């Protein structure tokens, strides 16, 4: 039979996480004998729309994409629907008026990740119930979905606890360099008052760790550090005792995506929401888990 | 002279006690001027006397520090050129102020387009522009961009533009500096027509002949002050020059040049020999031989290809065909650098675009070519630069507040002198001067030509291009006449007078 | 000064190269040369075309406007906000957005002219400001569900068995209007004059101040109009929309044969430029095998080939 | 009279803008000017600002010369990514224990890696220079090509991964200290002094200005305009290359996706804030350095004051507007008139 053709529109290549995501999807397609039409959107929604239109024009069997942002997909998805091409979302959700515009959403829940990070801290605070913990937050790119949701989830989780206070919050644009720069400024402004750092991704945390060390403090001990993603660098930091916990956000969506795509084309019913397997890795399990990490 | 000039009605335009200072210079100091309807009023003065500044104050480019401008008895304060235009004052400034990217027709009509149904009527505009230029006997494609045409044409376009407005006052700042006699005559006949219609015309020139040919009244300026106002008929040339200069000096009717006498035929070895030099659309194959220590004049009408020939000799444009030999050795010039290395210098006719680096100081402009020849690493010590600059400022009588003044704030004539000095400091073996005396006052012109002739005597060769035929004839050892983009004939000194040259130019081939 | 680059010639070359590019795509990828794919070029790049038209005016006058991408984003945000929070009627919302964009541009133009500031820096600050204002309204993206906007978004105007979007038609109309203004009105010619030589334009008695302020106002208007089209297109307002669009617009204008130094070029070149950029992207999407980095390298490479061929042919042409 | 001269010095206004920013910090951020000795070197906000500004200053120095020739180079960020990536990939490095003492081993000798990184940067510059000076492409499109493709190349080298460096001596470049001050400051000072000397002691400065103001006249005066323009692009990329090394060394890793992102805009902003016109010609190297310091101080101030990140952009734009307007001569005239009016 003709091989299955999937058109996949990726956000871009802005982080290691994203690259791992791309690699996973490409590898899975190759393994399954699926023809993958890959288009990189360079972080622009309009490019994704263009790519999806060209997939429709090429009459691919399935369209999959990781939306740059959650709103604004109605029109183009409607076109896909009219062309009878099923759409699968990966990694991020979309807000559409008509849920039948996509068949399935496979990916993580950023709010839940933030919540897990917050819950871990709430647990941790129970060890020293009397101490007030001052938190500084390194946000992702202003306005981006993961930044908004991870902030929201974290705030929900710590809301009930009066001992946990966010004293500073600034964007580090998801990068090491900015994370370090902002942390330096925080350290000068707040000094020893900072007890906890919550970073929206591992890269910023790694940058911030360097700033903390250069300030003569011990990351992971003087300042508790929580981050999200679970990339290799984070595990190395945990093994070195510089990072306390990372909440996993799994980029290896390839195999699951291929399975769903095949099912859809075969006419099987697929779940509307497929949640990826994700866990929380505190420093204690880092050494054991490290060899299993693929990215 | 018409009678109007001696029976002054009320002046249309009256300037009272205008003063204007720039940092370091008092450009104008209490200047007054009356302009009557139906007269041509010529403003004369040495380079830097303040003529252009006065005109700029009058037309709203600069605000005066003191003084009043009265138009038909009403005090006005023009804020911009547009404002002045609305008051009925139309101006052609000294530096051609047109847009090189627009077509000739547009440059004439911009701001007052012929319209049809609200939109610009292009065909009518083209037709009218063609007709307007034809009145000046210029037949060109007016739909081509202005930059396509040489400076002289641009100047005519600027004049045509100013004639288009129905103005009460027409101001022309050195409009004739790159025109030759034919164009000047045409211009003057147009001006006379306007004078008959009662227009007041303020005219600036450095040419005494032109002054006397057209003016009813002359105002002489010196050092930013008004020296006096005279009826042209009452003032002799010698007197006029003396008033401009402020001392008793000989006039341009001076004895024949010493240089020419000294140039002996025996020393005539060839320095540069061009054979069949040509470039498509610019120059037909042409031979040229320039001897050592010779001042070779290149005469011809506008557009006869003199500038093109000069640019090819200097490597500014690439020749399509022909060879150039320097001292008998064949050379090919890919860029001006090569020509400079061979000892050639070139002073362009278009000082604004091809000469002056406006924001740099007089000193920097002056040493630029020398420094370029010495290379980037061997910087001329500042002391030496200053010394050179001071020396040439003095030698050429450049009027500037200091050698650190940006060249852009010098008067036009003085800029020209700095550019001349730029090449003189490099001590070239051959200096190509394309309209070097453009915009330079009578006295300075003579001084410069004397200076140049003296250099010739010391072995420098000079290729001298000028639209002023008498000047070419006066200073050159030999004259090559160009016509229709090729050399029309070659004449040794003495074998030539103005009528012969004009004849050659007019008749061309039979004489060649 | 010699006349070295004929914009007319450059523009023709660009059209020729565009045809070559499309032909090559058609040869390499089946389905590439379908009419709908060509229409998609217009539909997907409608907003870019409108911005490029405004940018053409600015560049022709010798300036530059970096704020257009942000003003576009701000417009989507304002539209979304007014529709979703205040429930204003859609046409009123559009009118307000267009006026705001125009005022924003005019304010920058006034700063540039009256304080003699550099366009680059003023519009760069304008870019930060407009982007910043988006976040002040909201850092979330706001979905638009107003029926008029949805209709504009989803209407397909059939042409044969293919379709165009209303946005594409609006963009084409804007282009036509701009070409008319540039070539048939005194304002349009004044833009060229200012770009050719601002000092001379002033000395010739043109209203340089008014012209410059109007140019930036027009660019602001175009950016806002593009924002409205973008709102139709995406049905959302978002502060991160259209990042870097100003560079795309500048590139489109320059590729279309307009000189950045001002005064030379045609507004119609904006269309060719936009289509060239769009085709490059479509080619890449049709290829579908390029990784993220190869995408960048190939875009750069095609841009390079395009510019070099354009330049070399122009030089050749002028020699003749 | 001397006061008057001071007020009219072209560097006065950029310096005043910087001073005002620092004054705001003095009032709003407690302990901003506090410096202490930590681990044998100075430690404090001012040091952070200088250290952070170092790459930007370098980029701005290179950009100044390009702008002086009427050009622009928007590929600076991509060059930063390329040079940083090349260095990080070549050095890499691991720690081995030798006789109980940790030893750091580089994959490639560090000098070789640094030379390769700079070589890559120079290639970038030569590419830009060839397009602008050789082919006569417009600078913004010519450098746009590298801006897009360059980052792609860097990502291609790294497969989109962040390359972490483990070789300690390399860190000295971006986060080491010499005589109590960050080592990066010495690099910046050296580049600045060498450039300034080059401009003063040779005719380079004169030539660059001439080409920027009137290229036609400059060519007719015998300047090698094309060579000169080629050189400034190479120089600009070299500066960006060093900046890339510094950034990579500072965060101990090369992030091809994000390193130097938008650095070109900041560099151009710095040059203009320093009083150099984008129209080419007269330029001020010192002004560009001050411009870069203004930008970095502003960024740091926003972080320190604790503004929410949503307002970052608005604050930045307002400051840029204010600085620009206050520097314009028209504003000076207005100011003078209003002062006179009140007096
Ligand atoms: N913008 C300016 N800034 C400073 N000084 C100026 C400026 N414009 C003119 N000057 C000075 O004012 C004086 C008068 O200059 P102006 O141009 O009026 O002379 P001019 O009589 O027209 O001379 P020319 O015959 O050479 O054209 C000169 O000394 C000149 O250097
Ligand atoms: N009256 C004219 N009519 C049409 N074309 C002209 C005229 N005058 C000049 N040209 C154009 O000028 C070009 C040659 O100009 P060039 O500058 O070489 O002449 P020139 O002898 O140096 O004259 P000048 O320096 O007085 O302008 C020709 O190609 C021609 O197109
Ligand atoms: Mg004058
Ligand atoms: Mg000539």
UniProtKB/TrEMBL annotation, chain B:
Signal sequence interval, chain numbering: none
Protein keywords: ATP-binding, Cell membrane, Membrane, Nucleotide-binding, Repeat, Sugar transport, Transport
MF terms (GO), sorted A to Z: ATP binding; ATP hydrolysis activity
Keyword Transmembrane helix found: no
CDD domains assigned: ABC_Carb_Monos_I (cd03216), ABC_Carb_Monos_II (cd03215)
InterPro entries: AAA+_ATPase (IPR003593), ABC_carbohydrate_import_ATPase (IPR050107), ABC_transporter-like_ATP-bd (IPR003439), ABC_transporter-like_CS (IPR017871), P-loop_NTPase (IPR027417)
Keyword match ATP-binding: yes
ABC transporter domain sequence ranges: 13-248, 266-509
Taxonomy, superkingdom: Bacteria
Cross-referenced Pfam families: ABC_tran (PF00005)
Protein's name according to its UniProt entry: ATP-binding cassette domain-containing protein
Species name: Duganella aquatilis
Automatic annotation (TrEMBL), chain C:
GO terms, molecular function: transmembrane transporter activity
Signal peptide start and end residues: none
Source organism superkingdom: Bacteria
Major subcellular site: membrane
Family annotation (InterPro entries): ABC_transp_permease
Pfam families: BPD_transp_2
Gene Ontology terms: cellular component: plasma membrane
NCBIfam families the UniProt entry points to: PRK11618.1
Name of this protein: Sugar ABC transporter permease YjfF
Natural source organism: Duganella aquatilis
Origin organism lineage: Bacteria, Pseudomonadati, Pseudomonadota, Betaproteobacteria, Burkholderiales
Automatic annotation (TrEMBL), chain D:
UniProt key word Transmembrane: yes
Record-annotated membrane-spanning stretches: 12-33, 53-69, 76-98, 110-133, 140-157, 177-199, 220-247, 285-305
Membrane topology: Multi-pass membrane protein
Main location: membrane
Matches recorded under InterPro entries: ABC_transp_permease
Keyword list, A-Z: Cell membrane, Membrane, Transmembrane, Transmembrane helix
CDD domains given in the database record: TM_PBP1_transp_AraH_like
Recorded GO MF terms: transmembrane transporter activity
GO cellular component, one term: plasma membrane
Domain of life: Bacteria
Compartments where found: Cell membrane
PANTHER family named among the record's database cross-references: ABC TRANSPORTER PERMEASE PROTEIN YPHD-RELATED-RELATED, GALACTOFURANOSE TRANSPORTER PERMEASE PROTEIN YTFT
Protein's name in the database: ABC transporter permease
Species for this entry: Duganella aquatilis
